[in-house]
Amino acid sequence: MTEQVMNINAAGRTVPAMVNDSPAIPYQGVGKYSPQGNKKAPHIRTCIDFPHDGDKRVVSLKEALVKCGLKDGMTISTHHHFRNGDLLANKVFDIAHEMGIKELIWFPSASFPCHRHLIPYLKDGTIHHIEGSMNGPLGKFTSEGGMKGTGVLRSHGGRYQAIQDGEINIDIAVIGAGCADSFGNANGLYGPSASGLLGFALADAQYADKVIVVTDNMIDFPCVPWQIQGNYVDYTVEMEGIGNPEEIVSGTTRITSSPDRLYLAELTAKFCEVTGIIHDGFSFQSGAGGTSLAVGEFFRKIMKEKGIKARFARGGSNRYLVSMLEEGLIDYLLDGQTFDLEGVQSMAENDHHVWTSPFTSYNYHGKGNFAGMVDVVILGATEIDINFNGNVVTHSDGCLQHGLGGWQNCLFSKNVIIPVPLFRDRIPVITDEVTTLCGPGELIDVVVTERGIAINPLRQDLADKVKGSGLPVRTLEDLMNEARAICGTPVKPGFTDKTVAIVKWVDGTVIDQVRQLAV
Amino acid sequence: MAKTVVAGNHGGDIRSDCQVELTLSDRGGLRIDLDSKVDVLFGRHIRQLIAEILVFFSIKHAKVVVRDSGALDFVIAARMEAAIKKLVPSEKEYLLPPKINCAQQRGREARRCTRLYLPGNTPKMMINAGLHKPDGIILDLEDSVAPEKKDEARLLVRNALTQVDFYGAERMVRINRLPYGLDDLGYVVPHYVQVILIPKCEDGQQVHQVNKKINEISQSLQQPGEIFIMPILESALGIENAFAIAGAAGNVIALAIGLEDLTADLGVTRTREGKESLYARTRLVNACKAAGILAFDSVFSDTSDEEGLVQAVRESKSLGFNGMGCIHPRQIKAVLNGYLPDSEEIRKAVKIMLAWEEAQASGKAVVALGTKMIDAPVVKQAIRIIEEAVDAGLLPVTWREEHD
Fold it and tell me: Which terminus of chain A has fewer CB atoms gathered within 10 Å of its CB, N or C?
């Protein structure tokens, strides 16, 4: 085996120079990397090569894959609109396996525990590696060194960037949709597998060599609104069992009842109140996790008390944001992903509930994007270190657990606030150095813990605003020491020299690597 | 076949706890089998701790299986000790050096309006409890602990008293019903407990029993702190003896009422309006005021009903109660705000005090505010309200200047 050549990037992290036999550019700093040249363009297509009557149906997913020329080494993309209820990606690789295809690259927009089904295919070489995210069981498998190639972790915006600048060439995109017509127009608004929107598949539709739309709810033309336009689509398939509705919009978007998390959420909202981040016409984004939802609810309380309205909220939409929209507390809901049935229904019926995509929200190769327009974003993290650097993909034990999602992209909001507990069941969250660097500290403004609020020294303006408010402001170092007094000082995990995955920054450069766990 | 014992908890939604399975043997040394979610981070440390405890109890040959969901040292130690003592009775105690400033006392006059109940065998609720700023934390050995878990809960509570920082909240323990509860005292009195709650107290004799036992234990201690008593009256007989209990000893600082058991004893259904317990509640309040101590109301058991709680506190305050037990951290703020004087009360009290002081200064015998006479009890009330308000930060210490 040849010696792996390594680089030290601008964040001081050691990263491989070559990844899956292609050169990888080391991270150069925030806003430093500006590639030149042209965007990738798909092959010229001509309408005369497609059915004149617009009916692109084929009888099965297998036939569609065969017609797309499925063969060894191809890059296959799927999407996470069905979340943990996704059955489609698993079926695609069942077929590939059955056909004896090898060395595929799976390019999902995100993976979920349901995709543990694919582990045997990663073992037997049907899938060479994953470019996207490796969650839960797939993360563990990757960290243990099980994957043949090197995993690549990208943000939602980074995924669009990689498609647009040709870093990734999608051979076949398989788009699952709640509703579609035979021409390939599709949306996620209706049917048993309704998921809200299909924004994560937009780039794939535009740039992939071949595009298949699969639905369990084929309706007569026209399927409107066409979130995915049939003009990009090669084949359409109607089949049962593409998603498990209960897991798609799981209905689990419920505010936490944990008193500690509610306390954390309340403290976060208070911080936003005291600093004037919550002001008339402001905008916010917060995730669908229990704590984030609770922050939203405390926002609602403050906004109602003070008669404040938000111009827009970005989601992760859910019943709570929908009710704020309906109460008139938010003018527009810009939705990137819909988490419950209330969200799906609202998107279908309320023209102020607008669907977005990684292109509008986060895209690096666009002429701007929405991320920087948001006044405040509330994010999670598995680790934050005393220099405000953030990790969301591995835990302190070194094991890959989560994808990046839109996390990196959201760091460009005007105020980035991360409410996290100091420790979770003895697992430290505030540490001396993040296990894996996903977001540079210069972009993380405030870390709210149950035992104190740390403000990034770069944000003296915020520090000035909380003076005299009675909020418990402390340094991250101080907080880490308290965590250690309670839990003890943890031992660092051991790793081998093998790179099992890399973490891309939003611009396509490599910000860090994940190494194989030492046994 | 060697006997295997189990202590602690594991599985389901249990976190920050561990389960110890212990089997003694004649040879083979110590075999420690740790299954921990924090193995990478703390595995070596935890194994060391387990071995140290086994050696402390002179166990040389044993198999220990520990299933850990992120338990802190004080929890692991309590679970280990509980398992060991099931097999090897011992007077020895494995005590960790105190982690917090245990000598800190709140004093007789401290506010005790909000007291948060924590089940004595559930470590995950203990670690962050103090963050919610209750006046007191009640580590409960009684109703929230299953009979078969009493022994291990005593050890956990003992350890928690010196290891968990409750951020200034008073450390209270509700012991079991007497006489069994007297045995609990040995686990908490030497470990800086500040208030003992006696459940189902029915007469002053029980207060004496508890005090006698506390004194016996304290004699062997180097620096015994003052321990206060808070009897909980939960029966018709207890209510009838309220005044005697309240005055039974100088360290009785408050009485609390427990309405679930009381209504059962009365043979009535507990209602939201509480008419059925009005007599008992007012009798208890009266006894407390007569004895010069505080009166605490029964807990509000629907944790999701915020408005109901606010209403209940308002009624309770109007009857003369000074506080209420909390069974969920989210209740603390509503309970405190409900019992503290409201802005109108504070405004009036300030007016009265200023008028009174001005009259005193100018040597007037009779003071009137508007058309109302101000006499000594009115002033006394005003002083109490102002003190409470200043204490809670609702009124600045410099209130005289601000109102001039």
Answer: N
B125 and B269 in a common domain: yes
Q: Please check whether residue B328 is in contact with residue B304, taking contact to mean a CB–CB distance below 8 angstroms.
A: no
The answer as to whether B223 is a domain residue is yes
A425/B328 CB distance under 8 A: no
In this complex, the residue of A450, A487, A491 whose CB is nearest that of residue B44 is: A491
Domain count, chain B: 3
DSSP for A451-502? TEEEE-GGGHHHHHHHTTS---B--HHHHHHHHHHHH-PPPPPPEEEEEEEE
Co-location of B72 and B162 in the same domain: no
Residue B370 lies in a domain: yes
**Domain boundaries, position B31:** 4-87
In percent, the amount of chain B with pLDDT more than 70 equals 99
Name the fold adopted by A55-248. Answer: Glutaconate Coenzyme A-transferase (3.40.1080)
Chain A interface includes B132 (CB < 8 A): yes
B270 touches chain A (CB under 8 A): no
pLDDT of B378 > 90? The answer is no
Domain A259-495 CATH assignment equals 3.40.1080.10: yes
Higher pLDDT, B200 or B224: B200
Question: ipTM for the complex?
Answer: 0.90
Min Cα separation A215/chain B (Å)? 37
Q: Low-confidence residues of chain A, pLDDT below 70? A: 1-3, 250-253
Minimal Cα–Cα distance from A151 to chain B, Å? 23
Residues B334 and B349 in one domain: no
Using a CB-CB cut-off of 8 Å, the residues of chain A touching B165 are 486
Q: What is the structure's pLDDT at B401? A: 80
CATH number (domain holding residue B28): 3.30.230
Query: What does DSSP say about strands A415-419 and A446-449: parallel, antiparallel, or unpaired?
Result: parallel
Per-residue pLDDT tens for B322-369? 999 999 999 999 999 999 999 999 999 999 988 888 888 888 777 787
How far is the CA of A205 from the CAs of A130, A227, A365, A509, B156, in angstroms? 20, 10, 17, 24, 59
